[in-house]
């Protein structure tokens, strides 16, 4: 029995009327004949289109991002202050580490370069990049500007300048440069040790900072003020550092043992020349964040993955992000997931990957929301024959045209998730119907409710990718894949269900001394953002070639 036959059987069991069948067929036709109007956006975001594939790429490998012949590059992700960052090693012959927020909502990679005054030295993991120590660093000439624009200065040579400002008020200014880079590898050292000063001393974190490792609350907002107040030199602190060092060493040994016998290419095998922004001025959160800079991953010729593809380091225009969440993060690095360039790694998945349509909103990765549900798993004391607890789900009464009117995007660089304010009332109404009490966006520790066990899971139904093969909808036993709508919505059975458990949207706030809601229904411009907190627990594939976004549950261990 294929997937279509399975759905037809469900329709017969549900005894759908001919009118309902006709309506369903009309919906399917509308979906498959949909025009680009669904992807129109009033966004003033900078337009970015994908360049044509360059000659010399292996077209066989690019035909399917899950094909075993694909060239994949893997790198560890680390927990930042609400965000996730990755290691980028820059320069020759002794690469210097720069840690970068991985951001699907922007396209340029940028980080502070020496000299950069007041550029977050006290907050960042590393010193500013010292270009003078790299033999392969060079500035982009004005006749070759492609990230920025030419600036003429009577007191200095002309150069390519760029700047970026963000919605929350942060900004940076940089000049365009190029150097050889590679992603990931060892977190604490490059393949060749680098010397940063005349003392010839460098610590284990890839820079010459010798301050003690510091714990940071991952959910505590941004800023140096959120660092824990610890007194250096105390016995308690020394013991804590010793324990953390031993734990890190033990975790490293376990990972090494797990990966023994596997064919893992060296990270440096994926080196290529990257065009990036050498920041000389930064403001706002770029000063107080843990990571040094930002890595642009949107659909643009200037993005990191596109430049890696153009350099023939990966064989498909695709990458996957797998996020976990840690309550605290260490400056020395707290494991929090993985990034895969060139496709995805199915070995990390705990459920099959299912595919939603990807809509290009001027470079952003957009999706179409077909429904939103609240689901609560409760135990009535008697399991059913399959041993599963009873499940209850209610559907929000939403105007879907209004919900999707300005576009909904998946943005890994936005810490939390944001939807239109008009969703708030249907959400609260459905919450009370399902749970029997009112939704409270702030829960004190002294309250009787534990939101992580007493709040429902938010389920977002995303429109399926067009032309999905039947093999991608059924498992080996002929059953529909977990993660598809199936009988929940027989009109759109191939739609993808993205589950956001309460631990991902009700998070502890030190400043409020309470669990606070991070699934915001407050926006008055009708835009929607599925942020990093809603991505946690999934490996999400951004497949540009196939115009689809894949979702698989994952523990993100590779």
Task: Please specify the SSE layout and strand pairing.
Blueprint: H1 3-14, H2 18-32, H3 59-62, E1 73-79, E2 84-90, E3 96-103, E4 110-112, E5 138-139, E6 149-153, E7 156-165, E8 171-183, E9 215-217, H4 235-259, E10 272-283, H5 285-288, E11 293-296, H6 304-310, E12 318-323, E13 328-330, E14 335-341, E15 354-357, E16 359-361, E17 364-367, E18 369-377, E19 391-395, H7 400-403, E20 408-410, E21 417-420, H8 424-435, E22 442-444, H9 451-454, E23 457-462, E24 496-500, H10 502-505, E25 506-509, E26 514-517, E27 519-523, E28 528-530, H11 532-535, E29 538-543, E30 548-553
Parallel strand pairs: 3-11, 4-10, 20-28, 21-27
Antiparallel strand pairs: 1-2, 1-14, 2-3, 2-8, 5-8, 6-7, 7-8, 8-10, 9-13, 12-14, 12-29, 15-30, 16-17, 17-20, 18-19, 18-23, 22-26, 23-24, 25-26, 29-30
Strand content: 25-35%
Give the helix/strand class.
Answer: alpha+beta
Our Rg estimate from Cα atoms comes to 24 Å
Mean model confidence by pLDDT: 76
Main sheet properties: 15 strands, mixed
Note the quaternary state here.
single chain
Quick rundown:
Helices cover 17% and strands 29% of the residues. The protein has 558 residues and is an alpha+beta fold.
What would you note in describing this structure?
17% of the residues lie in helices and 29% in strands. Mean pLDDT is 76; it is low at 11-69, 192-211, 220-245, 256-264 and 379-390.
